[in-house]
Every structure is written in structure tokens, then in C-alpha cells.
Amino acid sequence: MPTTVRGRALIVWDPKQPGRKRDAIDTDQITPAEDCVSESLDTLDERWKAGAFRHVIPDFRQRVHAGETFLVAGDRFAIGSSREMSPAGLKGIADEAGLEMVVVCGANMGDIFRRNALNLGLHVVQCPDAVADARDGDAFEFDVETRALRNVTQAKAYSPVALTAKEDEIRRGGGIFAIGRRELPAARAGKRDIVFPPPDLARRMTSTEQIVWAHRVDKHAAVTPGATLQVYADLLPASDGTAPFAIHTLRQITGSNDVAPLQAAIANDHFVFTGRNADDKQTAISAAFAEHVGMKAPRYAAPGSGIFHFYFPEQGLIVPGGFYPGADSHSRAYGAYGAVGIGIGSTTLGFGWATGYVYFTLARQRRVTFTGRLQPWAGGKDIVLRLLARWGAKQSEGMSVEFVDRDKQLPLPFRNTIANMMAEGEALNGIFARDEITEAWYAERGIDMPYPRVAPGEEAVYERDETLDLTEVAPMIAKPFSPGNAFPAEEVARERITFDKAMIGSCTNGGYTDLLAAALVIRAARAKGIDRAATGAEFVVFPGSNTVKQSIERPDSRLSGASIADVFRAAGAEIRVSWCGPCFGQGPDSLTSGQRAITSFNRNWQNRMGVGGEGYLASPAVVASSALAGYMAPPSELGLTWDPEAYGL
User: Fold this and answer.
1) Alpha carbons 194 and 171: distance in angstroms, whole number
2) What DSSP letter does each residue of 208-250 carry, written as one string?
3) CB neighbours of 29 closer than 8 A, spacing ≥ 6?
4) pLDDT at position 51
5) Neighbours of 27 (CB within 10 A)
6) How do strand 365-371 and strand 102-105 relate by DSSP bridges?
């Protein structure tokens, strides 16, 4: 590797704001979802590289090959998914021409992309001043040893945001494979020791800090924001999309195809029903691996079993007080269950499968306290959309978020939606401390909770401390192309925005309670003479798991003895198998160019639900009322009033 990397600036400009570097580039824009399929564990698929930045800079590959190897973008670069192919694809394009790429961006880079890049040897530099100064074609130099950055054309030198000591060790030490090989013997010989902090210490710690403290490998390591620690994982789940590279990483570290992974789980939920041969090959990699190492249900979920953020909790594999790094950005959903859930990449996951722990950098802490009474037809989706809209361009600033349900009025499905969408809030994680609501959910399912109850300490320190009055939260709709671009649904209804598809489900809103809320809207509308969805649009439902899919076929007294599925079908809706595809532009229900959808999904970034499509986000109740109205609108637009007694709630 050269000690100095030289090249010219390739700036990603904002098409809507001439002269401004583009902010908030998500990983689907770096390497679009339809190009993110690996047919081999040993090579990067050509499509990863061919697809990189295709929808942002059509001639990106040619420009990199011509020497424009310093990719310059604004703040919040590479937010979103955990796909390893984003940094791998960028690195691979430069490698093709015998060059090295350096990503230069502003503040708050996506945490998963950043870790993946360090693991794979892609140079990433956070330096807002360098971004502000850069012009297309400027000559740049990057010192690999010191990480100093220089704009040669403008004769300016910069000192990027520093890495932690452990991050720099991984970078200098040859990446995650080399670190894993060095640590493997001790890791496999060691014994997991999970001990929670004593009361005198816990009172000064947040819930996240206490759980991380308990799961430290080195019991002498300080748990402070900015510290990078080895942390034992209770489960290390992957999807069919992220498992292959994790399997490859495990085998590279262990030097064997026969070493069983530690704490591993795989759910086939992303590319399983696309009908594409390449996707079937990818799914077969996980299936063959599971059979080889003896991984069976519930740790191995066959296609159709469920989306892993629903499936693994309902199977009892996620418990309060646990630490769960998952190879999917929405692993943050586990915070709803009183656990720490974070998104990681496949290389970090494979390292964890080899060692039983991952490297984790503790973030600064933030608290959001929910007060006031929840309003009619409002739910978890409306709360989180309102919060993201309030946070604005900076979002959570990469912090860990402690959620406090002061009056204990948010059921676990609402909490799931809020914690899940901390991925869109760009938080490291979000957590609701275990309480009576959590314990009732586990007791109802007969699931043991082995860890002690963890609650935020009275003297815990938060860098941001805010309150959200639920009295002020109305049903919301998020317009393209950001979940934070959210407005009261009654305001949006005045625009009479029509759509081609209305879709309910996903890991964010695919639970029984979510689907019941939509069914109650349909049932109430029936009393007003509105029996079916408006013509001209598809109405589709995706349960979060097969368990949910089966349960919605059973009679429910709150629907006068009908089942949720009966109510949906009577209104013209179709119920699909449980999977993630439509949420990120896969399968027959994905959007085509020019189509528009209102959904209960979690992301509506550009091209997210299909190239050229427009996605809007709302709660299941609002999606249902929109389907009936024929334009985007809340239940109140249909003249429906909330009646908890009539609905049996």
C-alpha cells in the first residue's frame, strides 16, 4: 500500500441546490439494491461495481478510472443499510484501475458504512472544512500513515476527525480479517462473563451504558462515549442478503469451512421471492451453511418464516438486557424490548461469529421523554415521524437515544416502530428500558428473561434531553425523499395526492397490533358505507412474520368475530408472504418508474422502493384510510371518530 494516495476530486453535487455538495447520500444511492447480489463468497460481483453511484453520477466508473479518486460529499454520507457491497463496490472500482479511493465527507457519516470501510480497507475521511473548500478536479493527497489530507490545488492542509485507538489499530493492522486471526485463539478459549453494574454505579449510567458495561470482554475497560470496546453478543443475526459475506469472513478468520459460528442466526427475508436466479443462488449459500454447521429453527428461518426483527423476538431469541449487533440497520428495533440493538456490516458480523464479540464504539447519550396523552388514530409511526421531522437535517447526530414512556401508554408494537426507525433517525441505537409493558409481553408468550431489570440511572448524563408531548402528535405522512419530511396527514389530504399502491407491513409495522389498527379503520368505514378500497390502486399487506400471518386469519372479537384477514380481503386487499422485498425495491410489488405508493414502511429515500418510484410513509391506519379514500388521507377524512370502547381497546 502506498504511504501517500494521490488523485483528483470527484464531487457529488446536490441537483436541487446548485453549488452545494450533496448531503444525506444513502447506501442505496451508492450501490442500488438491485445490484447488491453476490453469487460467490470469494469475489465481488461485477454488478456491485457497475451499479455504484449509477443513479447519482452516470459516468462515475469512468471518472474514477480517469483519476478522480477522491470522492467528496456533504454531511451524513452513507446513511442507511448495512450492505458491505457499498464500500466494497467503491473500493473495487478504484482497484480495477490500480488506484485507491478516498471518501472525503462532512459530519455524521453513516456508522455502519464507516465500520465496513475500515474493515475492508477503504479510506474514509470526515473533514467538513475540506468538503467546503473542494472543487471538481482539485488535486488531493492523503497520507495513509498520519491520515493528513491536503488539497494541493488550493495549497490547504487538513486534519480529519480522528479515529479511536482501536479503529486505527484495525486500519493499520490489515483490516478485520487480520485482527480476527490474531484474536481468535484467545476468544475461543475465553469464557463469557456477563455481570451488570452495581447500584452505586448504575445510577450514573443510561440503559445502553449499563448493558454495554455488563457485556464487556475486558472488565476493566471504561465505558465512556467515544471508547471502542470488545462487547459480547447475545445473538448475531443476519439476513440472506448479509449472511454470505459474514460466512466468507468467518472462514477467512478461522481458516476453515468447518468451524461453527458463535451466537449466529440467519433469517431469509430480503431477496427470497424475487424470482431471480442470482437471488436464489444467494439464498442457497445461507441454506448450505446452516445445514453444514447444524443451524436449525428458530436460529435458521426459512423463506417465509418472517422478517428477522419480528421473527427473532417472537421466538424468544431477543430478551431485555441483551446486546444484539445485527447485520441489518433495523436491528435497532431490539431496543423496543429493553435491549441494545445496533446495525453492523457482514464483516463485523463474521468477526463476531468467529470470536463471540464485536468491536463497539459507545456514542454520546440522548434522552427523549414522551409526555401527554396519545391522540385518536395516532400510533408509533406518527410519533417517530414527528420526532424525525423535529430533529431536522442533523437528526440524532449519531447518538444513543434513551426513550422514556413516562405514563406507560405505548404498547410494545409502538415502541418497536420507534426504535426500529432510529436507523432513519441516524442514531446508534434507541432503547425503551424494561418495564411492566415489556414484562407483560414476555409473560404472555412464556419467554424467560434471564437478565436483571435495567433502567436508566437517576444521575445518568445526557448530551441532549428533550420532551415530546404526545398530545401534539397527529396522524402523519412523510413525503419523498426523507422520513423526516413529515407533515400532519390532514394537511396532506388537502393536496389530494393519489397513488398506484397502498402497502401495509414491513419490519416497522407488520405486527398483529399494526394490522389490527388498519382493520379497525376499514371496519369503521364500512359503517359509513365505504366497503372497498378505491379503484385504480393496489392494496397489499405484508405480515411481519408467518406467525402474524397465521394469527390474522383467526377471529377477533374487536372485529365482531371476523378476522383481520377477512376484513382486509373484503376491502379488496391481498395478503402476501412475509418478507422485506417491496420495502427496498425487490419483487413484483416494488415500484416502477413513475409509480407512487403510500406505505407503512420505514424509508422513502430516492429509488428506495424501486428505481424512479416515489414512496410516502404513514401508519397502517393512515395507509388503510388512504386506500379507502383513493388519495392520501387520515381516518378523520372519512368522517371516522376514534371510539376505544366500540373497538374493544
Assistant:
1) 29
2) HHHHHHHTBSSTT----TT-EEEEE-S-EEEETTTHHHHHHHH
3) 53, 55, 56, 605, 606, 607
4) 54
5) 26
6) unpaired
The answer to whether the predicted template modeling score (pTM) of the entire model surpasses 0.85 is yes
Q: Give one DSSP letter per residue of 74-131, joined into a string.
A: -SSTTBS---THHHHHHHHHHHHTT---EEEE-SS--HHHHHHHHHHT-EEEE-HHHH
Residue type, 589: D
| 613 Cβ contact partners less than 8 Å away, ≥ 6 residues apart | 585, 590, 591, 592, 593, 594, 595, 596, 597, 607
Fill in the DSSP letter of residue 13: B
**Residue 453: CB atoms within 10 Å:** 14
Q: Exposed, middle or buried: residue 326 (CB in 10 Å: 0-12, 13-18, 19+)?
A: buried
Residues 6+ apart with CB under 8 A from 645: none
For cell 405508493, name the residue.
Answer: 597
Element containing residue 293 per DSSP (H, E): helix 277-293
Give the model confidence (pLDDT) of 508-526 as tens digits.
Answer: 999 999 999 999 999 999 9
How much is the CA Rg of the chain, to the nearest whole Å? 24
Name the CA dihedral angle for 618, 620, 621, 627, rounded to a multiple of 10 degrees.
Answer: 80
* Buried b / exposed e along 358-383 (16+ C-beta atoms within 10 A): bbbbbbbbbbbebeeebeebbbbbbb
Residues of the chain with confidence (pLDDT) below 50: 33-45, 47-48
Per DSSP, the three-state class of 334 is helix
Number of H helices, E strands in the chain: 23, 25
Amino acid occupying residue 65: H
Angstrom distance (rounded) from CA 205 to CA 485: 33
Residue with cell 392494496: 539
Longest dimension (CA), the chain: 75
What is d(CA 425, CA 404) in angstroms, rounded to the nearest whole number?
17
What does the alpha-carbon distance between residue 322 and residue 343 come to, in Å, rounded to a whole number?
14
Q: In angstroms, how far is CA 128 from the centroid of its own chain? A: 25
Among candidates 101, 77, 81, 79, which has minimal Cα distance to 89?
101
239 strand-pairing partners: 267
Confidence (pLDDT) at 31: 63
pLDDT at 81: 73
Alpha-carbon distance 91 to 101, whole Å? 6
- End-to-end Cα, the chain, rounded Å: 64
As a whole number of angstroms, the distance between CA 205 and CA 458 comes to 8
Residue with cell 456490516: 345
pLDDT at 39: 39
Q: What's the distance, CA 547 to chain centroid?
A: 22
Cell numbers for 373: 396523552
